[in-house]
Design goal:
With 307 residues, the chain is of the alpha+beta class. The protein has a domain of 81 residues: Macroglobulin (MG2) domain (Immunoglobulin-like, Sandwich). It contains 14 helices and eleven strands. The strands form four sheets. It has a four-stranded antiparallel beta sheet with strand order 8-7-10-11. It has a three-stranded antiparallel beta sheet with strand order 5-6-9. Helix 5 runs antiparallel to helix 7, helix 8 packs parallel to helix 11 and helix 9 crosses helix 11. The longest helix is centred in the middle third of the chain and has 19 residues. It is globular, with a radius of gyration of 19 Å. It starts with a strand and ends in a 5-residue tail after the last strand.
Amino acid sequence: MLILFTHKAFSQNYPMVLPNDSVIDDGEAHEIALETMAYSDFTDMALWMDQRDLFATLTYDTATRNNDPTLAAFYADNMGTAIGLMYRTDSLMQRLSDSTLMGDSAAYANALSAALAANGNIPTGLLQEDNEKTVNNWYLKLLAYGLDSLQSDFAAIETMAQSCPWIEGSAVFKARMLYAVLGYKVEVPDIELCAPATRGSVSRMQQENNILNGLKQPMVKAEEEQIIVYPNPNEGTFSIKCALPEGETGYAELWDVNGRKVQKVTLQNGNTPVNITTVAPGIYYYRVLVNNSVRSKGALTIKRNTP
């Protein structure tokens, strides 16, 4: 059984999450690889996103890749396409947050040049791939020169962050994260941005909007709620300190730079240990909610110490 999230069903969890327990069988993976998957709406973009997810999954699941000729062919065929090159660029960009690499200015400069070169190799032509290159360049500029370097790009970042991901591509999710890093509140009215499409009696855009509405909750200062995420940076194990009054519930969510949720943790009153040592090193974004209201959000750096 191959672990993968498919956009065929447009579950309530998409697009902000990629649940660890979402499973499709190998037959659906074959349909994605062979481009025979049936989508009811946003067909081109849904297939494109599914193929990106499938490629990323097969990168780690070498056993499935090596033992399934159809999936092996899909993976090999896409190594040099935009899908493979975007994955390589993302991997190189995540490496730039490694604390050991940051301590070596020459090595960091080389890694930054490698990421820029990989991003430059992504072919142009499709809107979503052009957008991916553009947003990657913003991130790389941020890492190289700091926040002030993005002043001239702010209007474009804001426009991309407020775009429909089913039209502009997954770069929209990256732009939304970048927009939050710049210190601005993320409010995404996807129900208006994207053409409505129904799934039963509930609009798919409404399902997505129900999730994204969580980002619209008024922020409360973390100090007032005594919410602390520590240590930061860390190697994949850290704690969240949160005072939960009796009768209140809380949880924390963690996303990667592509807007995919990698972890959701139910909070305890006091310290809650978190273990995400299986994720790749890089920058991740978190938010802490108490009674479904956002109480804290920020960036978290996962690093790996070399022996």
